[in-house]
């Protein structure tokens, strides 16, 4: 796919309109569709999303969570291609839980795209940081294997900062939470950079949560549909690169 097509894709996309429950803010900006390159027309591009509450979309509608928004954006951009989505994520999961869940699913190593967003519950539950240092690389390696062994088909997403929400503010530990989340994200980014894995930072978006309440779901803790749409804006260039390779 030529660079100019990538440019058109990135700048032509807008946020999709989804029907949401009362737990979230409706976004109604239309998406401009783009004729796909011939090498994707009629093809099936399988997508696996791995994570925790931020991936399963706690307190937002099913279509509002970021993997569903990404699937819809891709379907609208690449007319004629099919994007089946599988999500392995649950609220409260740590890196340990996710590793166990992947093992239990007995998945085939046959995905064209894998996203990974994990670690907030390691921090929230006060686990030793060494657990993340040991298990995050294992999850990245497992993600690569699931993506047919192609590391460029894996995109890692940074951990949001929940301290910039009403519930996080109540804890009165905002500085401590933010510093610890920075520690997790720094480790993840450095590991990804060293191993040439795509890493997308969305943490700064969530740090606008107190000033922009529309970025927080009605539970006062998790990202809203609008926040997830901003995640997609950040992720999309890396997703397109993954589909090119």
Notes on the structure:
There is one protein chain. This protein is of the alpha/beta class. Helix content is 45%, strand content 9%. A five-stranded parallel sheet has the order 2-1-3-4-5, sandwiched between helices. The N terminus is likely disordered.
Give me the secondary-structure topology.
Blueprint: H1 3-12, E1 47-51, H2 53-56, H3 66-77, E2 85-89, H4 95-105, E3 113-117, H5 120-124, H6 129-146, E4 154-157, H7 166-170, H8 174-194, E5 198-200, H9 203-206, H10 225-244
Parallel strand pairs: 1-2, 1-3, 3-4, 4-5
Mean pLDDT: 87
Tell me about the largest β-sheet.
5 strands, parallel
Number of strands: 5
Low-confidence stretches: 1-38
> What is the helix/strand order?
HEHHEHEHHEHHEHH
Distance between the ends: 9 Å
Based on the structure, what is the oligomeric state of the protein chains? single chain
Tell me the strand percentage band.
5-15%
Task: Write a brief caption for the model.
With 245 residues, this protein is an alpha/beta fold. The chain contains 10 helices and 5 strands. The longest helix has 21 residues, at 174-194.
Q: Which features would summarize this protein structure in a list?
A:
245 residues, 10 helices, globular, alpha/beta, single chain, five-stranded parallel beta sheet, disordered N terminus
């Amino acid at each position: 796919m030529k660079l100019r097509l990538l440019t058109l894709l990135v700048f032509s996309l807008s946020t999709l309109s989804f029907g949401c429950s009362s737990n979230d803010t409706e976004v109604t900006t239309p998406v401009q569709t783009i004729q796909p390159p011939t090498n994707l027309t009629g093809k099936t591009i399988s997508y696996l999303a791995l994570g925790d509450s931020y991936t399963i979309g706690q307190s937002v509608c099913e279509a509002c969570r970021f993997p569903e928004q990404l699937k819809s954006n891709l379907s609208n951009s690449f007319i004629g291609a099919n994007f089946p989505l599988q999500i392995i994520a649950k609220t409260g999961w740590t890196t340990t839980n996710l590793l166990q869940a992947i093992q239990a699913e007995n998945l085939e190593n046959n995905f064209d795209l894998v996203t990974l967003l994990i670690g907030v519950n390691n921090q929230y539950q006060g686990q030793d940081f060494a657990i993340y240092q040991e298990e995050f690389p294992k999850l990245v390696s497992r993600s690569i294997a699931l993506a047919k062994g192609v590391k460029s088909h894996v995109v890692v997403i940074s951990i949001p900062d929940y301290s910039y929400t009403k519930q996080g503010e109540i804890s009165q530990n905002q500085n401590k939470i933010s510093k610890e989340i920075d520690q997790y994200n720094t480790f993840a980014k450095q590991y990804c950079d060293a191993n040439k894995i795509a890493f997308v930072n969305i943490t700064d978006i969530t740090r606008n949560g107190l000033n922009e309440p529309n970025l927080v779901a009605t539970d006062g803790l998790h990202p809203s549909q609008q926040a997830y749409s901003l995640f997609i804006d950040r992720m999309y260039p890396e997703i397109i690169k993954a589909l090119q390779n």
